[in-house]
Write a structure and sequence with these properties.
Keywords: Flavoprotein, FMN, Monooxygenase, Oxidoreductase
GO molecular function, one term: monooxygenase activity
CATH topology: TIM Barrel
Low-confidence stretches: 279-283
InterPro entries: Luciferase-like_dom, Luciferase-like_sf, SsuD_RutA_monooxygenase
Distance between the termini: 13 Å
Protein name: Luciferase-like domain-containing protein
Number of domains: 1
Organism: Pseudonocardia sulfidoxydans NBRC 16205
Strand content: 5-15%
CATH superfamily: Luciferase-like domain
């Protein structure tokens, strides 16, 4: 196993790139099926869903993502339910621009935002898989899908802000004499996009409020953040907030955590091979079309472990079918690893587990408070605390994940 990259500087100065405030995201789950224990159902378990989103709020999460897929629940309806089941949690509605007219989506989002008193967020998915897009009648090539997203974003914002009726004739959308549209609770609604193609960076830097990444090695994320910031700077607009996503695998000791990580990778791989959690129908066994998955598999081929705690074998096990890179270790090690990304400028951190409900509770009890305590220390003293120095994880000399996990 290649050695992890060297540890960041161990001095206590807060890096100039570090985010001062961090908010936490989790994905909502509408039934108890998981990649570890798949339940053969396409249905919604209302009691489980109520428990899940209320657990997220009690655990200290700030946002929850309502994902979108052609065979899954409607993200708008689920987001509205989140708004009514919680008081503070902000629903992030995943939307594919091919599925609805932008003025209708603007109306839906403004309605959700008013009902939740300003909590709505939208995450636009241009579409990274031709087969999945075709399931709902979208046959645009990938590059043109991003161009459609750019026009879609412009029309969302105009629908929320234009004081009088307006008409539009663009490449993808045409209408006459619309508006003024329904306004959000506040001035606007945050718009997030993700992806790692050239088109994604260009649109994200020029138009998005939030840019989303899957978990990658620190040096690579740093380069990607610099890239999206450079596009925003050239466009003369505020830099998007940076959202990174991980699947932490946490236990009381590093040894227990790494044993769990190896066991999880095997179980997740079996689920994927059997097609029992919906991953195979979307991604297939071949090379994924989207750049983010291609990059995840590239990193997995290079090493199992990067930096303090990044574990890529889970991505390899699923052919990088969605966000699938883990952070492995004790709560302290995982919190320190999250702070490594915060130091690069990530201020939205998505942590969702493989044992969905139990992990959400555990992160809220054992991981999120450690990150917030460190940020409070930095705010009070202007210096980093000892968490990153004291919990080296894979940065420690002689680290060997195989040995910790008892792998021979």
């Amino acid at each position: 196993m290649p050695a992890p990259t060297p540890s960041p500087d161990s001095d206590r100065a807060v890096p100039p790139t570090a985010a001062r405030k961090v908010e936490f995201i989790s994905q909502s789950h509408l039934n108890p099926s998981t990649e570890l224990n798949p339940v053969p159902t396409r249905g919604i378990d209302p009691a489980f869903f109520r428990t899940y989103v209320r657990t997220l709020e009690a655990a200290g999460y700030d946002y929850t993502l309502l994902p979108y897929g052609s065979a899954g629940p409607d993200s708008f309806v689920a987001a509205s339910a989140v708004g009514q089941l919680t008081e503070r949690l902000r629903p992030i509605v995943a939307v594919r621009p091919n599925t609805a007219f932008p003025l209708v989506v603007a109306q839906q989002l403004a309605t959700l935002d008013q009902l939740t008193e300003g909590r709505a967020v939208v995450h636009l998915i241009s579409g990274g898989n031709d087969t999945e897009q075709a399931r709902q009648g979208d046959y645009l090539p990938k590059q043109r899908r991003y161009a459609r997203t750019a026009e879609f974003i412009d029309l969302l914002r105009r629908a929320w802000t234009e004081p009088a009726a307006f008409s539009h004739e663009g490449e993808f959308y045409r209408f006459d004499d619309f508006g003024p549209g329904l306004r959000p609770h506040g001035d606007s609604i945050p718009i997030s996009i993700g992806g790692q193609s050239d088109e994604a960076f260009e649109i994200g830097g020029r138009q998005a409020d939030v840019f989303s990444f899957w978990g990658e090695p620190l040096a690579d994320i740093r380069a990607q953040i610099d890239r999206v910031h450079a596009v925003a700077d050239t466009a003369g607009r505020p830099r998007p907030r940076i959202w990174v996503t991980f699947r932490p695998i946490v236990d009381r000791t590093d040894e227990l955590a790494w044993r769990k990580a190896y066991a999880y990778a095997e179980r997740i791989g079996r689920t994927f091979r059997e097609g029992s959690y919906g991953l195979r129908p979307l991604t297939g066994p071949g090379t994924p079309q989207n750049v983010g998955s291609q990059r995840a598999l590239h990193f997995a081929a290079g090493a199992d472990v990067y930096d303090r705690a990044l574990w890529t074998r889970t991505a390899a096990a699923t052919n990088a079918g969605g966000a699938s890179t883990a952070l492995v270790g004790t709560p302290e090690t995982v919190a320190a690893a999250i702070l490594d990304y915060v130091d690069l400028g990530a201020d939205l951190v998505s942590i969702r587990g493989y044992d969905n409900l139990a992990d959400a509770r555990d992160y809220g009890t054992h991981v999120i408070p450690l990150v917030r305590q460190e940020l409070a220390h930095r705010e009070a003293t202007g210096l980093r605390g000892g968490l990153q120095v004291d919990h080296q994880g894979a940065f420690a000399p002689g680290f060997d994940a195989d040995a910790l996990a008892g792998v021979r």
